[in-house]
Amino acid sequence: MSRAAERLKLLIGHLDRSPSAITAAPTSAQPFTHGPPQRLRYTFDTGLLTPEQRLFYEENGFLLIKNLVSEEDIDKFRQEFEKICRQEVKIPGLIVMRDVAIAKSEFVPDQKAISKIQDFQEVPELFRYCTLPQVLQYVECFTGPNIMAMHTMLINKPPDAGKKTSRHPMHQDLHYFPFRPADRIVCAWTAMEKVNRQNGCLVVLPGTHTGTLQEHDYPEWEGGVNKMYHGVRGYDPQHPRMHVEMEKGDTLFFHPVLIHGSGMNQTQGFRKAISCHYASGDCCYINVTGTTQENIEKEVMEIAAKKYAVDGKIALKDSWAIRGRLVQGERISM
Ligand SMILES: O=C(O)CCC(=O)C(=O)O
């Protein structure tokens, strides 16, 4: 037996025997068991992950799977994105974002003006990414069998215009989500081309998924910060960090409490990635009023009110329920 398998067996044995270890895991995670001795806090044994992979995610909060999405699919996603940029298709609910460094007066119907699109659940060709069986089989290891696609993005990190605005501040994705438990949420982030330190790959702080959700706000950057790019306050800058360099089609799965961000794009190309945040269909919405998430709630509600509401009022959880799509199993409480 490999060392990872031995360690995993020990961890599972510990969870099995120790009542305190079981209550340390969120109680709301109880219904998600795939088989009693197999469940650890962050992963399920579906027969897919090796002991090494499970242990790695349990300890680090992320897992890199090489060559998961085909070149052909990625090229189709890119073509669809370019069509959207050229305004050849109009999509209900799609959020189109521009880098803060691109002045409004410079409008050009081209990918050069667009740094990100969000909520592409109504774009069949892009949403196909969220339903790819080879992605979902990994997602199930973190969410369990009922899977909702909650939040979709295609990020087109532009060449930095000299103001460092192409950086994405270090943050925890859970800050944006009013549903729990956190351990049953996972992000799949697929590189649409080679990503490295030069074009601003993801940067992660391994192991920070075991912490708690921290306060977030706009960082005080001289050159400006993109809309809704909140940064985590008061994390340890000395914490070891890992630059996740990836090839086209490689996919990173990561926990929503993991502190991560991405660097400046110092090349002349647009660094593209496609991503989806999945949650278990058994997750529940929470009220974030009075919590650290209240500031982002306010911003999101202003956008949602413009997009969906007839009378200008919509509940945060409804704005998520409208966007969420079941991609496997049952939609129990989402
Ligand atoms: O793709 C990137 O540069 C960072 C994406 C990210 O962390 C996010 O949008 O939450």
From TrEMBL:
Keywords: Dioxygenase, Iron, Metal-binding, Oxidoreductase, Vitamin C. GO terms for cellular component: peroxisome. SUPFAM superfamilies: Clavaminate synthase-like. It holds the Pfam family PhyH. It catalyses: octanoyl-CoA + 2-oxoglutarate + O2 = 2-hydroxyoctanoyl-CoA + succinate + CO2; 3-methylhexadecanoyl-CoA + 2-oxoglutarate + O2 = 2-hydroxy-3-methylhexadecanoyl-CoA + succinate + CO2; eicosanoyl-CoA + 2-oxoglutarate + O2 = 2-hydroxyeicosanoyl-CoA + succinate + CO2; phytanoyl-CoA + 2-oxoglutarate + O2 = 2-hydroxyphytanoyl-CoA + succinate + CO2. One of its GO terms (molecular function) is phytanoyl-CoA dioxygenase activity. Its EC number is 1.14.11.18. Pathway: Lipid metabolism; fatty acid metabolism. InterPro entries: PhyH, Phytyl_CoA_dOase-like. It is an enzyme of class 1 (oxidoreductase). Its cofactor is L-ascorbate; ATP; Fe cation. GO terms for biological process: fatty acid alpha-oxidation. Belongs to the PhyH family. This is Phytanoyl-CoA dioxygenase, peroxisomal. The gene is PHYH.
